[in-house]
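Side project, low priority. Logging it here so it doesn't get lost.
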Amino acid sequence: MQMQMVAGGWLVYTMSNSAFSLGLVTSGWAFPILALSLYGGAVADRVRKRNLLLITQICSVLITLVITVLITTKLIALWHLFASSVVFGTIFSFAMPARQAFVVELVGKDDLLNAIALSSIAMNICRIGSPALAGVLLKYIGIPGVYWLILASYTVVALTTLMIPADAGGTMAAKPDVPVIQDVFVGLRYVGRSKIILALLVLAFVPILVAMPYQMLMPVFARTVYRAGETGLGLLMSAVGLGALCGSTFLASFARVERKGLMMLVAGFTFGLFLIFLGLAPSLSPAAVMLLFVGAGSSMFITLINTMLMSHTPDELIGRVMSIFMMTWGLTPLGTLPAGALAEALGAPMTVMIGGGVFCVFLLGVLVVYPDVRKLS
């Protein structure tokens, strides 16, 4: 996935030379997430999560194969990349609620923060090495070669999922004699009644709108702002991954964290402030240093929200609540499309500075309106 973000972003930007087109393709996966995530969460609460994950992994292999062949045969067009992004969004809508709920089944709520942090560590190790490797490989074997490696990676993941016992994490919940849509509304009513869950979901949504679009602009920083090419893009993305790894390792080192809300706010302010500093960075090396702190802050912020959502939700509703959490990511176009247009008008550095500043102001507003958020555990 990390190599695909780098190679795909580079492919789109070199084909179009447009930050707006980059934002459009990057956002394609968001539309099915908005439409299908709630349904995916209800399905995850009904079936064996391991089997659902296996099906989604096989689908990822198939769509990646199609795109790789199109790139290799030079038949690829921007609409192909947009369509594949939509398909990946559909897969994501079913895979991620199941994946999140599966973690609770496997480890229980007492060790949830450590489990999520360890999972984040594994992901962030890939975020360090994969973008740098992709940047180098783009230069030496080209975009088609990188995509064949991505296809091989997805295949390995599907085969690895087969190694998980079919009954891992407990028994499958009995299918209720009610339509799936009714289960969806049960989840929505629960969220509407729970002040804590609703507040956490709002906290998860706002950075996606204003701060997270910085990731989409990394090819612009590498190629246009710093003129560092593919290897510069790999360095910037790896810096984000290294920072995220440090943040995840820090959280995993705690046996218990009593004031998760306070730690979440500190992480959020770190994220926003260093986005502002990123916009001020004069060259590639200082930008990479700023991205270390951006990665650490954003990783800790999301991990803590994720943990608090699952720890405050009944087991039988976790799939549906996490589907709403994932659905907030489906609102990415509300951030990436304006960010792409703003970057073309004002430049990428100013765009990320505005996003970081708005996010910091939002967190200050949360402290004023809902001061008890810092006491959440």
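Brief comment: The radius of gyration is 20 Å.
Revisit when time allows.
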